[in-house]
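Sequence in, structure out. Go.
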Amino acid sequence: MNESYLDKFARLTIELGVNLEKGQPIVIRSSTDPELVKFARKCAQAAWKAGASEVLMDWRDSEISALEYANKDLEAFKTAPSWKVDFYESAAKNNAAFLLIDGDDPEAFKDADPLKMVSARMAMNSATPTYRGGIDNGSLAWCVVAAPSAGWAKKVYPDLSEEEAVNVLWNDIFRISRIDENDPIENWLQHGAKLNAQMDKLNQAGIVKFHYTSSNGTDLWVDMPEGAIFVGGASKLADGRENFCNIPTEELFSAPALDGVNGTLEAVFPLNENGKLVEGFGFTFKDGKVVDYHADKGKEVLDALLQGGDGADRLGEIALVDKSSPIRQGNRIYYNTLYDENAACHFALGQSYAECLPGAQTMSKEDLKQHKFNQSEIHVDFMVGADDLNIDGYTKEGKLIPVFRNGSFTTEFDL
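Output:
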């Protein structure tokens, strides 16, 4: 593993990922896997160098968490621990930046009850309105990156030794995250400029409805809320700063109308949902709501997710990703949502992002629902970008605009 690249990756994460301001606190959440600890320490060092007022660590251990899921009753997970709520709410009220270092073993919780896992997440989200609301509406700076745990690396590269798998996955992460001999900040500013140019073209096209089709059975109509826009590349925070919430990111995303989704939608990659895998799955929608679904493996995970309260059985995100993405071109499934969602067009069940509606940062949840932006305590991405995916857009006047052909943007939107 290239140590200089690791330093560059940490610098990119702090300076452009969360765009940490001098005097601002930061919360870094990471697992205790050795590689993630190594990268978390690099990020902490970069944060202090950038002028952080405080670097607060939230360490997680998947084996300890698995024991908790095995030994506590379901009811216990329906209330978030007060110490954890106080920690996140206090940090959010002090305008902290939030960094999540992902990369745990995709099968860390394969034996855990998915209802307990969903309940724990819903309880935490509902108990932390300052934190969760700030993430959703763009008033808080946040970023998600990944580092390779041994379990994740062996899942992606099962034929290699553990050490070899970790090193190869680090090299993938550097390549996909545009870490090379050049300045990573400059690399990402150039990438962001391209995404912004595509975003502008898409928003200027006047599309109010999309039609998705592919040979695997996807045949879906998606209405867009009035005034909704696509967002891509850097997000603009409420204070005017820009940051990259996901590294990597290859997507342009928006929010579908919560009652305007109809038809069938088939996933093309497995879903890793908190350490549990779902494979060979798809949904049928009517008036925005899931009315039928199936899975070859892990259907119990979908059962739990779709019972996850108001809005869990409706879509909150529509995202366009060209199959020329450097992740997709590697021709490998990563069993990690951050990476797989940037390899293919995807949707998300649950919460929508208010930044996709200009002026929405001060709106209440009820106001957002009135604008047909789904509100939920969950947000779960799943990938639908088949190699032969076609997407047509329609304007208010009924004009057809080809957006995707065979998994890629048409020439009108490809730059």
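Check: The first strand starts at residue 25 and ends at 31. The mean pLDDT is 93.
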